[in-house]
Write a structure and sequence with these properties.
Helices cover 51% and strands 12% of the residues. It is built from 12 helices and 9 strands. The strands form 3 sheets. A 5-stranded antiparallel beta sheet has the order 1-2-3-5-4, with helices on both faces.
Amino acid sequence: MSDEFQLGDALTAMGLLPPGGRFEAVRLAGGVSCDVWRVDVPGRVSVVVKRALPKLRVAADWQAPPERAATEVAWIKLVDGVVPGAVPKVLGEDHAGHLFAMAYLPDDAYPVWKGQLAEGEVDTAFAARVGALLARIHAATAGRDDIAAAFANDTQFHALRLEPYLLFTAGKHETLAPAIRAEAERIASSRIALMQGDISPKNILHGLDGPVFLDAETACYGDPAFDVAFCMNHFLLKAVWHPEWTADYAAAFDALRTAYLSGVDWEKPHDIDRRVARLLPMLFLARVDGKSPVEYLTDEGDRAYVRGAAIQMIVEPPANLSVLAEAFFPLAAMR
């Protein structure tokens, strides 16, 4: 069965296309876990259709339940109620096909934050808005038994995050394995707030009215420190890739940290600060030795630098994010 035929059936089932109606679909690039299309239907606004894949497009064998499409829809709808405009509007769902449709946000009005950071366009005010918005989402979901029950997606989170990023990496570093595995177990047993699970610059659009979050298929109730560490990791990685912009990345790191911690009201800010600082080096290492290595660090010298810096911080965990930044960014700038 062709993608076009599947899309036509799904669009009709979702009420976005009359039976036998015409449409044009363009496959969008960038996803390893999903098929994504922009679909244009005459007389309607463009939509994005996203279908979860049972096997991700990476070199390692990485399987994940396609039912995560429903998880993503549930997270988007929840966040839209907390901070309207921080997510695209969901327009329809096809549960059997593990896909859904959402509003299309054009690149010219909603550039991807990852692309801006890669070009040295580092907006510290925007980084602060990301941190503040993330804290609002976590605060709205912290200590909520109903949300914990609705997002009890431990199996999905293990398959999509704990195994490929932490446990797989632990398997490559015998001396670090006990610490990494203990952290994975701690996250797996945490029940603090709703994690989105993929807060990355590639999944954040720089909208005129603020950040727009995408790709929530990994959402699970757990430790919100994971979201913060997952996002802040990219400032470290970019500093290795582009040491000439290290000062800008460091400023964005601090802006996001400060704004996020200012919004923490469900626990003591220094407690989550400490947990993020402990987890972050492990995720840093995972982006060269995990199942999803970052694609732009192709130079083995850069990868070795990441490895060395991460190992040192895992062996001697920084007390908090400020200590981590003070130790990491000055050295990265001198490379």
